[in-house]
Amino acid sequence: MSESLHTDAGQRSYRILRDPELGLGPGPVVLPREEGEPARSSAARLAALADVLTAQSDGALRRTLIRSCLVDAGFDWLCYCRIMCLDGRVSRAAWYAQYSPPGWAEAYCGAHCFDTDVRVVKASTAGWPFAWMLDDLTRDAAGAGRAGAAARSLAALAARAGIGSGVTVGFETARPFEYCMVTLSSTLATRAWISDATMGAALVLAGEIHAFIEPRIGPLLTTTGADGLSGLQKRMLDLMTQGSSDREIGALLSLSADQVAYQLGGIERRFGTRNRAQLAYVAGVLSRQPAERAAQPPMEPVEDEGRRVRYA
């Protein structure tokens, strides 16, 4: 089942998806190394992986192929995320977790590790694959403060999930505020094993997985995102993006400035933004995008007051 985690009055939203939610067939297929070493993939086989996966209608065979390519490249796990990031803060994410360690996506999102993980910002700016190990996740946030504690908690969660090192690759999307990151990881706790050849294989494998999965997840915030707004709210949004103040908008629409502020605050939460500058930027980008359909139908959340998390 797909799972959506929400907090901060709906301003942050994380969806966890596996093959059934993307129409790729039910159930995981896991091939531990000890069950037999698969035939080594050639560079040509890796480079054509996206086309092969698209043509493969059997979900079990598709998962076997991906797993064998992972093992051939020296990795144990694959995590694919599409992230909406504004001012270094992830407000929305869709995590394809079919090949992630069991329970890792849920633990990571539940602890809001996107706020702490140094790989998130690096993946959006590096433009090239980079290797890491667990010590790297805490090095930039050392100390006894909140950031240091959160980084150590992330490293501890990763260690319990069997993650020790790996390679992360970032990919741009058509949205300036959305990008994708592919993380290939190993149980090994050092990155000494990651050679230039391993980096090259990781880049090709990540690119092929991205080409196959990204169209099936689609944008996190679509141009249909404003469809749920009333005509009045859409007019407010238009005026706000043109630079009008709350008072000016209220005067044009016969509303008080407080009423305008309340309505625009709701739109900020809907779009996952934290202030008017972010909202104007996101609305402006969306207004220039061609019409499109949301990749996933809306999900009705169920409250879990004990954990202050909503699942759908």
Structure description:
The protein is built from 12 helices and 9 strands. Helices cover 42% and strands 18% of the residues. A hairpin with a 4-residue loop joins strand 8 and strand 9. It folds into 2 domains: 215 residues, Beta-Lactamase (2-Layer Sandwich); 70 residues, Orthogonal Bundle (Arc Repressor Mutant, subunit A), CATH 1.10.10.10. It is α+β, with helices and mostly antiparallel strands. The chain is globular and about 65 Å long. The C terminus is likely disordered. The termini are close together. Strands 1-2-4-3-7-6-5 form a 7-stranded mixed β-sheet, sandwiched between helices. Helix 2 runs parallel beside helix 8, helix 10 packs across helix 11 and helix 11 packs across helix 12.
Topology:
Layout: E1 3-7, E2 12-17, H1 43-47, H2 49-55, H3 59-73, E3 77-86, E4 89-96, H4 104-110, H5 118-125, E5 130-133, H6 134-139, H7 146-160, E6 165-172, E7 178-186, H8 196-217, H9 231-241, H10 246-253, H11 257-271, H12 276-287, E8 302-304, E9 309-311
Parallel strand pairs: 2-4
Antiparallel strand pairs: 1-2, 3-4, 3-7, 5-6, 6-7, 8-9
Helix pairs in contact: 2-8, 9-12, 10-11, 11-12
The main sheet comes to: 7 strands, mixed
Low-pLDDT regions: 27-41, 293-312
In the CATH classification, which architecture of the largest domain applies?
2-Layer Sandwich
Q: How are helices and strands ordered from N to C?
A: EEHHHEEHHEHHEEHHHHHEE
Proportion of strand residues: 15-25%
- What spatial form do the alpha-carbon principal axes imply? globular
